[in-house]
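Review form for a predicted model. The reviewer records the input and the model, then writes brief findings.
Reviewer: anonymous (R2)
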Amino acid sequence: MSLPSFNIQTFDELLEEYARERTDPSWSPVRLGWGSIDADLRGVGAGQVLGVAARATVGKTWALASIAQNFTERRDSGLLILSLEQPGIEWTERQFAIYTGVAPETVETWAREKEIGLHVGDFTERFAHARVVEDSVSLQDLPGLLNATSAKLSVPLRLVLIDYLGLIGMTGANAYETASGLGKGLKIVAKREKVAIVVAMQLSRAGGDGSEPVSMAMLRDSGVLEESLDFLLGCWRPGKAMSLSPSEAIALQDVMRVAVLKNRKGRDGRIVDLLFDSESRRLTEPSDPFMAELEP
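Model under review:
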């Protein structure tokens, strides 16, 4: 009976690999595009998984689309978007709205009036190394999908965005076991395929109406899910609280509050207010100098 082959390394070998990787001009971790959060996380590296957890309607998909907009400033890296909840053309409408800085309804109007081409600019060039898959995907099929995507790209595939975790096919005896298996499985895939994964995650009903601060305990059927993640961001919309005065509701209507709930690379606990653009719904961090470099 043959034994599996393991890569058994010394610290000398690992330190040499670490130094070589960190000094390679082509190496850099994935930045989300939100300066304060990126400063704490120091980027999501190959083999790491970041969860974006929130209740429905808080804006998880907009968060992922905003990350895609920021990431594609890098023209040397590939991106795969698994749009498992909505059709690819619906994701495209949102992505195009973010790129052009207009409301999704405006994009639809352009399409109806056959004016999309007048506003394309360098959108398709910017997203030339991005691919979208809307088909159902199981955890077992994910490595093959990543390899097939890589074969279609002229640059390395570095980032996979998944919307959302609960729609990845996975069998388990119960919801607890399924969620736990997904968490461990994504981590294994990220390490083997050397990609960073950012995955949207649904909170349990303990998350209320999405206006309350998010905690680890709110993860739906989490099991060991949180243990498998390298990073976890909890997101809520304080402006949705019923107890707010009219003036408070107006002041908070475009705010997504984000807490760093887990950070393998350092400190957690930071809370940052991100702002939705009132038209395009792109999420940015106010007064973040990083964003000035990413405007199309």
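Findings: The first strand starts at residue 49 and ends at 54.
Further findings: The chain has one domain: 30-288.
Recommendation: see findings above.
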